[in-house]
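Internal ticket #5521
Category: modeling
Description: The requester needs a full-assembly model to guide mutagenesis choices. All entity lines are attached below as received. Residue total reported by intake: 472.
Assigned to: D.W.
Attached entities:
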Amino acid sequence: MRHASPAQRVVAIGASVGGLEALKQVLGALPADYPWPVIALLHTSAGYRGTRLDTLLAQRCALPVREAEARRPLESGVVHLAPAGYHLLVEQDLRFSLSVDEKVSYVRPSADVLFESLAEAVGAGAIGVILTGANDDGAAGLAAIRARGGLAIVQDPQEAQAPQMPQAALRIAGADHVLPLAAIGARLAALPRESA
Amino acid sequence: MQDKDAEELEIGDFIRTLKARHGYDFAQYAPASFKRRLRALRVRTGAASISALSRRVTDEPAFLRQVLAGLSVPVSEMFRDPWVFEALRREVLPILASYPRIHIWQAGCAHGEEVYSLAILLQEEGLYDKSQIFATDLNDVALEEAAEGIYAASSARLFSENYQRAGGRYSLSDYFHARYERIKFDESLKRNVTFASHNLSTDGVFAEVQLILCRNVLIYFNDALQNRVLQLFRDSLVHKGFLCLGSKETLAHTTVERDFDAFDLPARLYRRHAPR
């Protein structure tokens, strides 16, 4: 088991309506030897509650996909999935924690909560990705990531199944890259080589 | 970066103040969500900074209630995770029925949604009259609300759906009165409930019981506090007593892992066994 070290970067992806297909595509582009932890958050209010999301995503992904557990460490080369109904947070010691506190941006799990905690935990090491969705969740979190020097990638609203979440992210946080879905996975796959 | 470090110092100072002044120890809470709650409390109380909160904690003893209420924001629902209550009804209550008296501890009862859920289960299984439920929380404001048994009418639909999925025998509305925007549960449901203040991070064994429900509380604690609380639960349970945790909580990787058997893992039901 390879645990994330503080110098390491962490990829966090937030998606809502239309997010299952979008996540499949992005995660499907990551190689089996991907060196960083990946966290995927899909709003369960978007109708995926009760389905085995990890199984669905694992079919298309070379990396192991596992539900994130409280107090367990982030692992490199693993896609950690936010459990339905809980906020997922990253602690300073790069372990997960869960909460059932009130919904944020009308959702739980909220990408704002995840991204803000990640920004505080790894600072410039955070890579936040906002995909399709029909609310504003993730925009404030992406701004927190950028404020601490992290990288922001937003799906091009023009091609997003639901453009509101990418639009809100661009309006509130801005982005380092605005890309079509097909290019986001490739960008994430290329980043470790560029920063080596 | 400097702001972040400054805030960390203020938060550390706040935690020390609360402990020194009032004996409440939040040092062993998982920091990320604690920090979110503390920031929300600062905003809600109009404090200019976390340091200002610390000063109010020192200067105004009456402010403590508000602080504790803000730092343990309890969000629950009746029959949350219905399969858990279905499992309690089908698998656990028939075993508890063999005891002359049934003692149950609901630790971290918050606004009481699960207390009333449990009371309804016991009533429908014909066990309530010989049962006693101890419902505890460190948050006195929440305890008072729990004792009132009043919830937003907008929750009724979700609560009712959960109740049906949990194997409810009647209609949940048989147990409450709707009035204006509120629903109020029958007073008789709490006739065998004792609401009491108890702090899991500092207080000891509360009672000897056959079932402990503590759901979605341990997720807020660090490893050390989680282990403390689980040992407390182990020591509070009779031989072959049951422990029910939240759906994302587990005894794996804890110090009491070997003191319990998994009884129904999807429902997060564990059963204490004799020391090996």
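Resolution: model delivered.
Comment from assignee: Residues 10-195 of chain A form a domain with the Rossmann fold fold (CATH 3.40.50.180).
Ticket closed.
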